[in-house]
Structure prediction request, 212 residues.
Amino acid sequence: MNWLRTKYVLHRLEDKISQEIYEGRPIIQRDSPIDGGVYLGGHEREAIVVDSVKYPLIGQVYDEVKALCLGEDYSSAHPFIILGTVFNTVKLRLRYSEEETKKIIEERGAVDDHKISLGAFLERQYGVCRQQALLAAFLLEKFIKEGYLEGKVSVDRNSWVLGAHAWCRYTDKKGEVIILDPAKDFIGSLEASIQCGKWDYRRERDRKGRGF
Prediction:
């Protein structure tokens, strides 16, 4: 597996990136914050902006998910309820379609590293793995920030002979890793993902540290 796609971005756009900032926004990468950042490709494509202040539609999606999980009193919910609701919401609000996603990008003139908001895809309700991973990670990041969930979240990606792929990785307070991959219809532990065989989500340390 190739885990160097972010390095490809930094090298490819080195004349436009300073201190991992692209056009005024921090680059979203492994274990980085999501909200406020921009997500770039290893090759030229759209630059996806995640900003719940400037583009409030994603914040509205969070409010909807929070209400589903926590009820009207916004008290508490089991982490599995939050994770499952986020997963199902992403699949519903960003239906997977390469063709429709390409149309959105071209209509907004967002090719060749031009910026486009994640909200543009939510408006049309289409995306592919990267848009889905970003939305899932944004939602979980908000739950963590507001104290309803403990742990950390990341947008991970890698590539191999079958192509490149992105997904959301959540690590709970005990260190248990849960993968949310709406594009491949998988949600579950890292161990379960190996048995499922839809994609190899393991980081380098996962292979060394857990022996699988």
User: Anything to note?
Assistant: The longest helix spans residues 129-145.
